[in-house]
Write a structure and sequence with these properties.
200 residues; alpha+beta; 3 helices
């Protein structure tokens, strides 16, 4: 009759197998995006890493989500209030449901903390010969602005509380911008107004 010790060996071996099976994936698992990002800056100490905070929310036009008319797109742009003459480097297309969520390093992580002047513009892809240009090349969206140039002038927006945001950690994902357009007279673009936007 086998001893108790000898009968317990298969059980110990089975437990050991499962422990090994669980441990091995952890040893060789792929790094998460955040881990890869942390490793990049650790390996490149001279690279500047910005402190970022969430900047996300919704945009409505006359109380409704933005309407996509053919090749038109609604963009939200963030301007440096100290340098309105510079083209904003942080911008994105607003989704069909009106949502937006900025990204600097990782999806949804936001923008570098600080103050921004927000502007909006709804532009179009030019058509040539019945075809939308931009298949394999950089797409450039151009006017006319479907928002009638009412919300694309950072010089005006810098004095309107609604359009000046101070992004601080941890940030917010509930920003709301309601743009009233119906019934308003078109405005002329300002000297720093966004009238063209590179496609994303």
């Amino acid at each position: 009759m086998p001893s108790l010790a000898r009968r317990s060996c298969p059980l110990k071996c089975l437990v050991g197998f499962f422990v090994l099976a669980i441990a091995l994936p952890g040893c060789y698992r792929q790094k998460t995006d955040k881990e890869a990002l942390d490793q990049y800056f650790k390996s490149n100490p001279d690279a500047k890493r910005f402190t970022v905070a969430r900047f996300a929310g919704t945009v409505t036009i006359d109380g409704l989500p933005p309407e996509k008319k053919g090749a038109s797109r609604l963009f939200i742009l963030l301007n440096d209030p100290q340098h309105l003459e510079k083209l904003p480097t942080r911008f994105m297309e607003v989704a069909e449901d009106g949502s937006f969520s900025f990204m600097t390093y990782l999806a949804g992580d936001g923008v570098p903390v600080g103050k921004y002047v927000v502007e909006f513009v709804q532009l179009h892809l030019p058509r040539q010969g019945g075809q939308i240009r931009g298949g394999g090349v950089a797409r450039i969206y151009r006017g006319p602005d479907d928002l009638k140039n009412l919300y694309n002038d950072p010089e005006k927006h810098k004095d309107i509380t609604q359009f000046v945001v101070d992004v601080a950690e941890p940030g917010r994902d509930d920003y709301q911008f309601n743009l009233s357009v119906a019934g308003k007279e078109p405005a002329s673009p300002g000297r720093y107004s966004a009238t063209i936007v590179p496609g994303l």
